[in-house]
Design brief:
homodimer, 454 residues, mainly alpha, three-stranded mixed beta sheet
Chain lengths: 454, 454
């Protein structure tokens, strides 16, 4: 538990810096000793590289390990790089092996192998086992040190057994019962262990209809199941139903955060990064972005084709071109508003493909209201710029039509993507702008043709 | 636990529909009885309104209550509307009072008051107490039925006490110890209760440095603390430190989801909706969007001013205007890519204001790479359209400069917003597009002036 809670960490980092300059290592140790690892990690990240390393080296081994588990990828790499293999191996030993595996996955493979070689054979085997599962699967996230109870045990026997387990073994609110083949047979809430009579057998009180996930399950599927049913943890089994480990609530929160990060990046028009932003090399970020940017660029070329098509009209009334950015910008903005709301409603299951018609009807009514407001304001602005009345009317009607059109496709494309098993977030703001641009111009020039008569 | 896990729910909904037509109510009951409330809620949402109501009425009271807690707002309103007050009151009695309060907050206040009047006085007082706290605060979310242990108790006494509590009282992995004034004095892991000798006093094993949140704390702050420290639950206290309740992991996951929904809506250029999308009336959605759309519209008018300023150049070389949407569109897309990544990195604390210079340096290098690619492709495209070489060069250099510029402001504005305590997500895709549009045109026409010499 953390005495630093609700305190700003900057002043503590400042104090640490001063103590470091004064060479007062003992005071730093006593200042940080009671702190929560996650707070110490934040403090380290506020320091300069050499200060960070000096403070990290002052931490007792257990604390250093917990802090290493909490710092961001960039700092992990930096700290591991500056500390000898054997010290890192000792630190990893003191962590749950799923956390150790996560740290090892962040550093270069060769170095990771050297560190694993220095770990206790049992822990080394455990970490290698975890690392053998693909990233982003249940196998990679599970804690294999899980209590395995037997159905024939009494509460009394169970309590005696629990006194023998080590502190690294996960014991949350639920305990799992396995049969002779280590197959998952039941689950018992800790509460029942505490409140039932010592002579009762687990077989008589355990719940036998158990939700588990296969070891190969994608982490997002794991998070979906756990959050759907409000679980604290979920057991992981192999193909034959053998209990391999459990995934706990803190991993689920991390998965949800990763998933959100992916969604907002995709909605911003980029393929999701695999790691933290500043820890991702410029080349990698470039590769994640250039694809969409080129696709959108090529699509956007259609707007040039449309404008060339209306070259004579533009030549006749140059003022027509003044309104082009305003019109297509507003269409893109309105489409982005619609699609961001609907993408999220799809992601949390509030709406589905079957609701497409209702979504459309909702967005069209919103689009008419927004389009009317934009049309009136645009009409006034055109007159203020001294545009002739027919041009002002053209701009006004074009705004109404473009906003309505943007909301129409903004409400239809995301559920369609979901139906095709594509992440609806690919219908990003940039995709919406680009789609609305060319079609919006066609609407504009057609109206100009009809109203101004060019 | 749910036997439906990993099963598609549509076929079950279809089966329920057939059984309903056949009037076979008993089969529907036995089909759904073992299902998890969250699955039954999803099945109900797949049915038509009259079918939904018929099936809901078949559920036993406890199950109906759990299902009511799981359906979306729209369905909650619909079901509550069709069921008599007294039946709703009975259902709410069987839920934890924080969930009952949540349901009551979703329906019209007058109806909610009538239902509360029919509840047991103790529960009614409890619900009214919860509803007296502002929405989105710790007080609104807490479960007040929390185990309160005394420090002087032995493990044995604690175990005897735990046997007397009712099943609605939260008992997760941690139990809380209070002193005579009900002030939070310590926390004991369930594990220690189970494994320590019966004669040991709680005072000797409890952890006394406890993280709690004040009852008035914003829900996002609660979620931040719980996820920062990987807690399963967190106690809620009043100003004097008195234990009022606890907030559990499932509420935290809901808060994280709400928070992210707000972020992506804001990033899409709209003020966040307060409830679910389809349950929000068109007028409300309109009001949440029209403000930003108008602000962006007015800002975007600058592009018209810029274009008017270059009227003579446009008159002389109409082809200049063909590239306008392509240039400003690409700038907006690139800016949106940068800002979506950085907004999220700020939200999860990966980067902070102090990293602004590093963010800028990262994004400028990415911008140069992306700008070069776009410049080369744009140059080729301009030549293919038969543009003269000076115009093609203008387009190419403008693309490089605009992408670089977009990435520059895309990397600087979000941390600046964070520094000013504004949600960085207000630097939305639409805001980026709009900011880049006018400035991008100035860059373009300036380059045209220099290169083409008009």
């Amino acid at each position: 538990m953390a005495p630093f809670i609700n305190l700003a960490l900057e002043p503590i980092a400042e104090k640490v810096r001063h103590l470091l300059e004064a060479g007062d290592q003992e005071s730093i140790r006593s200042l940080l000793l009671d702190g929560h690892a996650s707070d110490i990690a934040d403090i380290l990240e506020l320091l300069k590289e050499d200060e960070r390393l000096a403070v990290f080296n002052l931490l007792p081994l257990n604390k250093a390990a917990d802090v290493l588990d909490e710092v961001n990828t960039e700092t992990t790499i930096e700290l591991v790089d500056a500390v000898p293999d054997s010290a890192i191996a000792d630190m990893l030993e003191s962590l749950p092996m799923d956390d150790a595996a996560e740290i090892l996955a962040e550093i270069p493979e060769k170095r990771a192998d050297e560190i694993i070689d220095l770990m206790q054979p049992e822990d080394a085997a455990e970490v290698e086992n975890l690392l053998s599962y693909p990233e982003r699967t249940a196998g990679r996230l599970m804690n294999t040190k899980v209590v395995r109870l037997k159905a024939e045990w009494t509460i009394q026997q169970t309590l005696e057994f629990l006194r023998t387990i080590d502190s690294e073994t996960e014991t949350l609110a639920y305990l799992y019962v396995v049969n002779g083949n280590d197959h998952l047979a039941g689950v018992v809430p800790m509460r029942k262990i505490v409140t039932q009579s010592p002579s009762i057998r687990l077989a008589d009180i355990m719940e036998t209809s158990i939700v588990s996930v296969p070891v190969s399950a994608d982490q997002e599927e794991v998070a979906r199941v756990v959050t759907q049913y409000d679980f604290i943890a979920i057991p992981v089994v192999n193909e034959t139903g053998r209990l391999l480990g459990i995934i706990t609530h803190d991993d689920i929160v991390d998965i949800l955060r990763d998933e959100f990060t992916e969604d907002i990046q995709r909605f911003g028009g980029t393929e999701p990064l695999e790691g933290e932003y500043l820890a991702t090399p410029v080349n990698n970020v470039f590769r994640k972005r250039v694809g969409w940017l080129l696709v959108l660029f090529v699509t956007e070329m259609l707007t040039g084709t449309v404008m060339r098509h209306y070259e004579n009209e533009l030549q006749a009334v140059v003022a027509l071109s003044f309104f082009v950015p305003l019109l297509i910008g507003t269409g893109g903005n309105s489409g982005s508003q619609a699609t961001s709301t609907i993408i999220r409603a799809l992601a949390i299951g509030e709406v589905q493909f079957k609701d497409a018609v209702r979504l459309l009807w909702h967005e069209m009514r919103i689009g008419i209201l927004l389009g009317l407001v934009m049309g009136v304001v645009g009409f006034g602005r055109a007159l203020l710029w001294g545009s002739p009345i027919p041009l002002a009317f053209t701009v006004a009607f074009a705004l109404l039509a473009i906003v309505l059109w943007a909301n129409t496709i903004g409400s239809l494309l995301p559920p369609l993507a979901a139906k095709l098993n594509i992440d609806p977030a690919v219908i990003s703001g940039p995709v919406m702008s680009t789609l609305v641009d060319a079609t919006g111009l066609i609407i504009y020039f057609t109206l100009a043709h009809l109203i101004i008569g060019i």
